[in-house]
Amino acid sequence: MSVTKHLIIGLDGFDWDIAQPMIAAELLPNLQKLLKQGSQGSLQTVLPKSQSATWATSLSGLWPDQHNILSEREPDAGGEGNSAVSHLSTSQSLLWDWLAPAKLKTQLLCCYLTSVPVETVDVCVGQHYPGEPQFGGQWSDMAAENMYGLNKHDLDYLGKLRLAPADVPIELLEPLINDIHQIDQDSDRRPAIIAEALARTISVHNVATWLMETRPADVLLVNYPLLSQVVGHFVAYQAPQHKDISPQDFQRYNAVIQGLYRFFDALLGRLMALAGTNARIMLLSHYTFEQNDNNSATGYGLKQFQPTEKTPIGHVIFSGAGLHNNAELIAPQQLDISPTLLASLGIAIPSTLIGRIWQEAFAQPLVSKEQQATLNKNKDWGALEGGLSQQDHIWLAELSAMGMVDPLAHNIKQQRMALERQRMLNKQQIQAVRGDVTGAIATMISWLGQQPQDVAVKLELITLLFFTDQHKALLPLAQNALAQLHSMGEDSCPSLNGALSITTRMKLLQAAIAFAEHKSDSALAHLQQIDFSSIQDASTQTFAGNCSLKLGSLAEAEVLFKRAMSINAGFGPAYSGLARCYYAQQQYEPAANIALRAVELQAGDFASHRILGLSFENLAELELAELHYRAFLQRYPNDSEINKRANRIKVKFAPSR
């Protein structure tokens, strides 16, 4: 079947755990219809904190370090600070670059990376539409320079399609906020947050339906900000009532999130009707928001007013003509999105792409196994650009020689350094997610070569070296960090995670040093001086759990790993540690269940594949055991024990294969 019409809907923040019971209760009829006509699955993503980097990965089919968009902003070429990233920030092709030669009419609406308009498509309405909210609940002037493919009459009409936050009908807010008429909105700004998201979403939807009605395209990519802007602030208000939420606030705001899902479902119905039956629709969410537990709740109007953290688990639904109905996608990843869409559109897959096509979604196979194998390629790491310009360096050197500092140039230098540091950390995180521990370690060592006093990165590197038993490299670094902490005041330690005091960090370092020197009793003594029950940091709890595991204290290790999981339900290393703990206790079924979750959270967690193989073998699930052994051997092909086990299973099954 030849299908050219494709509708790609971005809905970051969509949570399957919230939607599923609502679908079962028939509260989301259009989403239910979409699911019945297609496939769906949890989507493993990287860098959810940077939506531009995340979207660039989906649109390019490459890892962020390859397309080189690692954050929301990047250094200016002229050394005068930094600016927002756009599609011009990468030299790699993005989805629309492959569609243009195929003569497919493509439209982009409020997509990330369109702060500078894309001029190779039919229409581009930039990501800043409809504008920024101003005092009085109106939008700022619409930036025509962020548009492409629209004449003056079109632009005037786009201005009229905007709904201002102040003009959102009260009837739209009433199903979301109980007793809204009783709220003093001068002191409680939560209704304003919801109104702005509704206004922005309705404005975007107005343009989407106008385009679909008046100038239909082959491919329309539209990004809806509804959930991403609101859900993080209102997770804490869901049932059951959190201890930090007053009864009045719980009663007022507990229906917000479900109400937003139902509102979007109504919009989805209109999009599906306009797309028609001979179309394919992809609904794409790159992340969800962490659910509040018994710790302090976060969200607007609370003591911790920032939104809850994003998790690297999103969701994808691929539905429509020529696709399997009610099917499950097999471990879909971001890297698969571009290859799958290109294949669906009948466009040849570039050999540079490293994801796979979701063959299981299609009623008819699209490519051969040989063609699919060509997608399994990778590229070398790209060098990160940064630093001040030569002119900046000369100017600063002259001022320094006179004993002076230029505040502006100094500020530029600090901003650029902070930006490069964040890009380095993002790159290191990508490598860790891949399972490229050697690369992650090398990235941090390279940074410390430039910034040897960055104690926070030093501590993170020590933790990674400890987790991977690289004691020879750990020992001098830990001793150096310990001396550095000795010279600092209790409250002066910059950190990747601010949950620990310097005293606690020093005790952890002393324990790590003792382990590196094979002094288990000394390591235990240092750890016993720390009250881990009061530390709200998943990484530290996991570090202590691994220490206990090495000391053979399995019960203590189990407590620490579970505590880490309660602090951060999406922290993969804690699941990996608990799986090893269960396996050591010969609890093979829980070990396998926890290790599966670890692999889901960390695509490159090969150690958990090893635990899965061993656990399934002990459970006599030999085919599953072999599957995970093979996954482990992709990273560690010379592991003699696992090779023997995998080959033994292979021989056993040989007659039936």
Question: How would you sum up this structure, described in words?
Answer:
This protein is of the alpha/beta class. Among the domains are: 6-71 and 89-373, Alkaline Phosphatase, subunit A (3-Layer(aba) Sandwich), CATH 3.40.720.10; 562-657, Alpha Horseshoe (Serine Threonine Protein Phosphatase 5, Tetratricopeptide repeat). It is 50% helix and 8% strand. The protein has 27 helices and 13 strands. The strands form 3 sheets. A 9-stranded mixed beta sheet has the order 7-6-5-8-1-9-12-2-13. The longest helix is centred in the middle third of the chain and has 28 residues, at 407-434. The two termini are 34 Å apart.
Short description:
This protein is α/β, with parallel strands linked by helices and 657 residues long. It has helices spanning 16-24, 29-36, 51-60, 64-67, 95-99, 152-161, 170-173, 190-214, 226-234, 247-253, 256-275, 337-344, 369-373, 390-401, 407-434, 437-450, 455-467, 471-486, 502-516, 520-527, 538-551, 554-567, 572-584, 588-601, 606-618, 622-635, 640-653, and strands spanning 6-10, 38-44, 73-75, 82-84, 106-109, 123-125, 147-148, 219-223, 280-285, 288-289, 310-311, 313-320, 327-328. Strand 3 and strand 4 (82-84) form a beta hairpin.
SSE order and pairing:
Blueprint lengths: L5 E5 L5 H9 L4 H8 L1 E7 L6 H10 L3 H4 L5 E3 L6 E3 L10 H5 L6 E4 L13 E3 L21 E2 L3 H10 L8 H4 L16 H25 L4 E5 L2 H9 L12 H7 L2 H20 L4 E6 L2 E2 L20 E2 L1 E8 L6 E2 L8 H8 L24 H5 L16 H12 L5 H28 L2 H14 L4 H13 L3 H16 L15 H15 L3 H8 L10 H14 L2 H14 L4 H13 L3 H14 L4 H13 L3 H14 L4 H14 L4
